Amino acid sequence: MLFKTTLTPRFYETDALGHISNTALTAWFEVGRVRLLESLGAHGAQPVDWILAAITMDFLEETFYGTDVDIVITALEAGNTSLNIKCEMHQNGRITVRGAAVMVHLDPATKTKCRIPDALRDAIRSLTRAPA
After folding, report:
1. Is the pLDDT confidence value at 28 over 90?
2. CA distance 12 to 29
3. What pLDDT digit, counting tens, does each position of 29-84 carry?
4. Contact status, residue 99 vs residue 32, Cβ threshold 8 Å
5. Rounded to an integer, what distance in angstroms lies between the CA atom of residue 103 and that of residue 36?
6. Which residue(s) pair with 73 in the sheet?
7. Cα–Cα dist 68/40, whole Å
8. What are the DSSP E strand ranges found in 65-106?
9. Among candidates 34, 16, 43, which has minimal Cα distance to 73?
10. Assessment of whether the complete model's pTM goes beyond 0.85
11. For residues 99 and 29, is the Cβ–Cβ distance under 8 A?
């Protein structure tokens, strides 16, 4: 585990079948990614400097209202202009969702992709080498 944040499901996020809607779960992964970037913010990782290029999600079990959900970043890899992030959602000791995202770093002035700053690369390297 590289990073973890916890969310409390809200009743309105449930669907007709009584579990958390897949649309809410997609948004929760975004919360996890943004909080990760915010935690690295002193290193040039402002969330507004990133766009989502790809996302995959595997729904392994139902996620329910009434119990907190941990969003866990399990892997993080920086490319030249992109960041690959692997995530899991845990509820009651079970992995309910597993996913991956590719984020692209943008130059805020030109809105074109740009190299991930070295300070952020160093922060990512420190995070990925830290003991779990």
Report:
1. yes
2. 17
3. 999 998 998 888 755 556 678 899 999 999 999 999 999 999 999 999 999 999 99
4. no
5. 12
6. 3, 87
7. 24
8. 69-78, 82-91, 94-105
9. 34
10. yes
11. yes
